[in-house]
Amino acid sequence: MSFKSPAEFREVMDQVFTMMSTDPEIGPRLREADTPQRFEFPDLDMVATIGPSDGEGGENLRWSWSEDDDLPVEVEMKMDSDVANRYFQGRENVAMAIARRRIKTSGNVKEALTILPITKPVFARYRELCEAKYPHLIED
Questions:
Q1: Contact 26, 118 (CB under 8 A)
Q2: Phi, psi dihedrals of residue 45, rounded to the nearest 5°
Q3: Distance in angstroms (rounded) separating the CA atoms of residues 69 and 47
Q4: Based on the number of CB atoms within 10 Å of its own CB, is 66 exposed (0-12), middle (13-18) or buried (19 or more)?
Q5: Which residues in the chain belong to E strands, given as ranges?
Q6: What is the pTM of this model?
Q7: What are the Cα distances from residue 76, in Å, to 56, 81, 91, 109, 128?
Q8: CATH class for domain 6-137?
Q9: Rounded mean pLDDT for each run of 10 residues along the chain, 140 residues in total
Q10: Which one, of 73, 76, 63, 61, lies nearest residue 29 by Cα?
Q11: How do the domains of the chain map onto residue ranges?
Q12: Reduced to 3 states, what is the DSSP secondary structure of residue 35?
């Protein structure tokens, strides 16, 4: 299942990042982990940089959709948008995707893998979001 456009991908991912940032359990843990990451989605020619915020305004994370973001990143991950979609539905094992080269990585990958369990509670909420607004993204 694919996103209809780069704009739809960004719209969906902005909602996911907001879920993680504002969740009272997930957000503070991700901010404290302090592992800035850059995600490249070559199939859509998009880059997202995400890292900890200063915690003001209820946000624990900050992100941008620019390659020019000055946030120093510890990890870079390159994957197609369908891999990201499967991950947030709980249907893509990141370690296996790295081993199979569906996700290409550089930097402190071990640190990135340690924060993955923090994001698991988002999977059900992501599926609910897709079912409600983006049913074409649901993976069986």
A1: yes
A2: 55, 50
A3: 10
A4: exposed
A5: 37-41, 46-52, 61-64, 75-79, 103-107
A6: 0.92
A7: 26, 15, 21, 8, 28
A8: alpha beta
A9: 93 97 94 94 96 84 88 92 95 93 93 89 95 92
A10: 61
A11: 6-137
A12: coil
